[in-house]
Amino acid sequence: MYKQEQIKPYGQEGEKGQQVESMFNAIAASYDTLNHRLSWNIDKGWRRKAVEQLRPYAPHTILDIATGTGDFAILLAQQLQPETIVGTDISEGMMNVGREKVKRLQLDHIISFAKEDCMQLSYDDNSFDAVTAAFAIRNFASLDTGLKEMHRVLKTNGHLSIIELTTPVHFPMKQLFAIYAHTVLPIYGRLISKDKRAYQYLTDTIEAFPQGETMMTIFKKAGFKEVRFKRLTMGICTMYFATK
User: Exposed site from 66, 112, 143, 156, fewest CB < 10 Å?
Assistant: First the structure.
């Protein structure tokens, strides 16, 4: 078991997946505002870079895991113009926000949403040309199981594009990020979302989550090949890319 798998939003009682679902349902209305403000809108650029990793392969069918309010799915639809994108999540509250955005942008002919447990996806083997996830795999109850499921539903030679929040490894960003993550992030998150634990949980899981070279080994264990990563914004975010 990886360290972040033991961290739950609301204490040790109860299953992590259920707690994460409750947390995201609770903060769904304020999630987009907080995401963009707390990252100074840099998160939008991170998503664009993750989309660009897929552009050379022109995927027709994409599965966006833990799609949340659909920002990554929307960007994928606008930039790559695939035939279909399925955004899956355990939080209906988050997806309901996404459904409204997709409808407003008139992308509902490309993007659909489905409640799915990423530990046990309902899709057949070899179903999608690409699988994506933005700021999501850190919340998996079992990282190994979730990655194996993503590998299973990918077509042979299909591609995985992931971005995840990470801790910077070099001075001074490492020290600055630690201060920000333990003061501004949880306090502002609590004020806006009204959830006392959600943004402390965010900090705790970022610090506990394996990254960089360690994640390369984890992706390979799940069956992926041609795995690579790139640190963005001095290590605050890490972008991963892999092939089945």
Answer: 156
Which two tokens mark 124? 């057949």
Tens digits of per-residue pLDDT, 73-111? 999 999 999 999 999 999 999 999 999 999 999 999 999
Distance CA(244)–CA(14), nearest Å, equals: 34
- Give the dihedral sign, CA 19/23/28/34: negative
Structure tokens at 231: 């640190």
Q: CA 131 to CA 212: how far, in whole Å?
A: 19
**Distances in whole angstroms, Cα of residue 81 to Cα of each of 54, 60, 159, 195:** 12, 8, 16, 36
The tokens for 98 are 């996404």
Query: What is the rounded distance in angstroms from the CA atom of residue 43 to the CA atom of residue 119?
Result: 26
DSSP structural state of residue 101: H
- Would the pTM count as exceeding 0.90? yes
Query: Are 95 and 113 in contact, with CB atoms under 8 Å apart?
Result: yes
